[in-house]
Design goal:
2 copies of one chain form a homodimer. Chain A is mainly alpha-helical. In chain A, about 65% of the residues lie in helices and about 5% in strands. Chain A has a 3-stranded antiparallel sheet. At the A-B interface, helix 1, helix 4, helix 5, helix 6 and helix 8 of A face helix 1, helix 4, helix 5, helix 6 and helix 8 of B. The structure holds a DNA duplex (28 and 28 nucleotides).
DNA sequence: AGCTACATGTAAAGGGTTACATGATTTT
DNA sequence: AAAATCATGTAACCCTTTACATGTAGCT
């Protein structure tokens, strides 16, 4: 049940049309919650039906831009969801699965894949660090309040995740390279 | 397309019935690829249909135990899958999403959730470290070959993941506790 | 008038989750 | 004989993914 709340958050940050939301999911929001435009349009319909958001008054026809904004009920629903107990989702890591399979049938061709993934994660890490340098310099963090600090924690989650993968992939490549 | 290959790997390690597989997915395999018994039975049927596994000769009736083993075609399919290029899946981290939502509408009640998750991850990390101490002592790792080293990398993935969460949750709690 | 980009949507297929159903075996 | 447990399976629902369809606006 995270997608509707991801959309509510995005709309609170800035009222948007479906396509604008899709673009933002491809960028910053997508760093920790991805979604396609089909998912987003469907969910926008449901959220409007439930009275959590509304589209601005003009009644647009099919190919027309439709801007949504969050209603008070939507803000309340989001605040409730934040504090709601939810267990961490069970893990599903295909790459780790491949290593276990390689332990069973041999790892021919796996090193290339590990190297390719390593490069992808190195690149993503560099992108995150660049954002951090640009948006969260030390003096701004010292001056800013909790809101800024939380936004920084979101970015830090991405940085830690990529560092984790980079280190793990390097270590695993070292084993295969023996 | 990971579940069938997870099952092939598990069956190569040891031929099993559906329920036995389910138990192993609840334990070691489930640390990085979870699956319910319904998924497993469905997939066993498909794998048998495709000629990648077979159930042992006795034709069992409904409530009867049915043991599966991997056929040569299944082993080949698994080896192919290991080297097949697959991009990392887009990330979906509900907890990070909640932090971003908290930055927008305030984090009331979130600290409890963060603390609860922290405890869960601390416990999981301790479990992994205990397995490492028991199954991968330094002298065994030095003597063992690539197979053992790869199995260790699988466990190391779990350890690194939990360490990452523990550190991130502690840092985020520190922000909220200000 | 045709082309391209923008914008919203529909359809179908597959995986995952939850709840339930049924047969066989063991225990009391 | 009844109950509990083991074991396999069905059904319905939701989410995600992929491919396709349709309408609008601006430009040449």
């Amino acid at each position: 049940m995270s997608l509707p709340h991801a959309i509510l958050t995005a709309l609170l940050e800035k009222p948007s049309s479906g396509l604008e939301l899709t673009r933002r999911f491809d960028k910053s929001i997508g760093f920790f919650w991805s979604a396609t435009h089909q998912q987003i349009y469907r969910e926008l319909g449901r959220l409007e039906q439930s009275g959590l958001i509304r589209s601005c008054p003009q009644p647009p026809s099919r190919g027309q831009r439709k801007e949504y904004e969050v209603l008070p009920a939507g803000r309340t629903a989001l605040a409730d969801w934040i504090a709601d107990p939810q267990d961490p989702k069970p893990v599903r890591e295909p790459m780790v699965l491949r290593i276990r399979a390689a332990a069973a049938v041999g790892g021919r061709g796996l090193a290339e894949e590990l190297g390719r993934h390593l490069e992808l994660h190195v690149r993503q890490l560099a992108e995150y660090l660049e954002i951090e340098r640009h948006d969260f310099p030390a003096e701004r963090l010292a001056a800013g309040g909790e809101r800024l600090a939380l936004q920084h924690r979101v970015l830090r989650a991405g940085i830690g995740m990529e560092e984790y993968w980079v280190e793990w992939l390097r270590g695993t490549l070292a084993v295969l390279g023996d």
